[in-house]
Automatic annotation (TrEMBL):
Domain of life: Eukaryota
Keyword Nuclease among record annotations: no
UniProt-listed InterPro entries: AKR, AKR2A1, Aldo/ket_reductase_CS, NAD(P)_OxRdtase_dom_sf, NADP_OxRdtase_dom
Species name: Hibiscus sabdariffa
Family: Belongs to the aldo/keto reductase family.
UniProt keyword annotations, A-Z: NADP, Oxidoreductase
Signal peptide: none
Residue ranges occupied by any NADP-dependent oxidoreductase domain in the UniProt entry: 15-291
PROSITE patterns documented for this protein: ALDOKETO_REDUCTASE_1, ALDOKETO_REDUCTASE_2, ALDOKETO_REDUCTASE_3
Entry-linked PANTHER family: 2,5-DIKETO-D-GLUCONIC ACID REDUCTASE, NADP-DEPENDENT OXIDOREDUCTASE DOMAIN-CONTAINING PROTEIN
Protein name: NADP-dependent oxidoreductase domain-containing protein
Amino acid sequence: MAITLNNGFKMPVVGLGVWRMEGKDVRDLIINSIKLGYRHFDCAADYKNEAEVGEALSEAFKTGLVRREDLFITTKLWNSDHGHVLEACKDSLKKLQLEYLDLYLVHFPVAVKHTGVGQTGSPLDKDGVLDIDTTISLETTWHAMEDLVSKGLVRSIGISNYDIFLTRDCLAYSKVKPAVNQIETHPYFQRDCLVKFCQKHGICVTAHTPLGGAAANTEWFGTVSCLDDPVFKALAEKYKKTVAQIVLRWGIQRDTVVIPKTSKFERLKENFEVFDFELAKEDMDQIKAIDRKYRTNQPAKFWGIDLCQIHVVATLILIRLLASKLGADSGFKVHVEDEYEFDAPKMLKGNSETLDPVVVLIPSAPTNQFQWQSKHPSCLHYKTSLLWLCLARSCVLAPYSLE
């Protein structure tokens, strides 16, 4: 089962992610997965195992286990190589022992100080904060990615971890449209508006962390997985499937590509056995209702950047702008509760005591999400991925999202 990309190439809807796979495990998992029917492998320079993947692929080709043209191989440009796209791509091709890539992605929408081609560093400055390179724009990086297509080194190019605004910008400045946006999305972090935006504009969404991170992200980031949710346990019993199979099937029925990772053969087999059943609409709706806006992958933990605080500041700037535009007697009140002790009401001018309060709750990391609460029954609201704003007694909606 495959999804046709906007350039006509087909991408299998289930792939194997190779993050955190090492040594002999890589060889065995690649070979075994091919025998089970996997034809899609998701790699990255930053995973630091392209050479091991390449050895396994070379063995599979030489032994006749599979033909190169029957596989879909993805890898990714790391942040420190934005100014060296061609060299980084060739380095990945050499390690993977391939003549071309099926898909090459910009891993993150940020360029950092170059540390050497293929070195995949995340250098920090003297303050312990990611050393961002401000001389290289994402547009420049993208045009270099487009050159790879014209040179025949890659068939498709795409983006990864891009929000709606960055995706929109990429669509505007691109000559070769992104074929894929690979993002974290799972039942606890559904990101419907971003997924639908991409699909509307012909960009296939690949779900990394499709099972909500499970043990790997719990270990690295202290987050929780949706696999323990009672809703999925009940559905697994109903369909006589495992919880993981229910979650992956949900992702497939959203028309997203899923790339779960595992180091265990039995899970490898289990994750691929998701094509012999279909979730009913009422069950898809039930899963939709458990969205927590909960991000489990938190790379900022290693970069010295508090993404939550950045979002808080952006939110308060937006609140102030809206309050100023609406005027002192608009009946707009916001109260912010957060760990940073920002006093949002003091930022607003006018009488803030006459209406029921609109509360923007900003929980601490790692959720990095915003929610609204209001007792006002006629309060208009616009739901976004990271921010819900309610404007009482006004007809102004705030179409603002950081997703």
